[in-house]
Amino acid sequence: MSERGQPPSRIHPPTTAGEREQLESWLDFHRETLLWKCEGLTDEQLKTASVPPSNLTLLGLIRHMAEVERGWFAAPLGLDETWLFCTEESLDGDFDDVAGADAAADLKTFRREVATYREHAPRFSLDDVKHGRTRDYSLRWIYLHMIEEYARHNGHADLLRECIDGATGH
């Protein structure tokens, strides 16, 4: 456990459970881990790119993962697919346009996106397929990809947080 402690909502996934529960539990664990890495920081700290020359920030990761949640879950669940932070003019707006961003609003957007897919995804089979531009994806694959995406970015969040205030944890 880190100096900050572990928030009550960050529940470790069960070690014995069915496939669906495992996938949902691991995805939720990683979602909560990203929020945990942002806990207790000021807006300025959330917008701090602390590993030069990268412009990666914790707020950028929150915004990016809100986009990723929508990008992978919205279409197969029949929900709104419009971009949240990115535009045709700023394809990396989730990462790049954080200087003037409202951190509280962006965290709220992230939480809303997560809540939407937590509510709607269980209505579908893991074998349901999303028809992508170049190939098809099962909902099972999407869950696995999301876990991988969060795990990778939570590693980035670990480094960013440690550079900001020295806090570490897993």
- CATH T-level fold name: Four Helix Bundle (Hemerythrin (Met), subunit A)
Quote the beta fraction: under 5%
Estimate the global geometry from the Cα principal axes.
globular
Overall pLDDT confidence: 92
N- to C-terminal distance: 7 Å
The structure class reads mainly alpha
- What does the largest sheet look like? 2 strands, antiparallel
Supply the CATH superfamily name: dinb family like domain
Radius of gyration: 16 Å
Output the CATH class name: Mainly Alpha
Question: How does this model look, in words?
Answer:
The protein has a single domain, classed as dinb family like domain (Four Helix Bundle (Hemerythrin (Met), subunit A), Up-down Bundle). 55% of the residues lie in helices and 4% in strands. The protein is built from 6 helices and 2 strands, in the order αααααββα. The chain has helices at 19-38, 43-46, 58-77, 93-96, 103-120, 139-165; strands spanning 129-131, 136-138. A two-stranded antiparallel sheet has the order 1-2. A hairpin with a 4-residue loop joins strand 1 (129-131) and strand 2 (136-138). The protein is globular and about 40 Å long. The model is unreliable at 1-6 (pLDDT under 50).
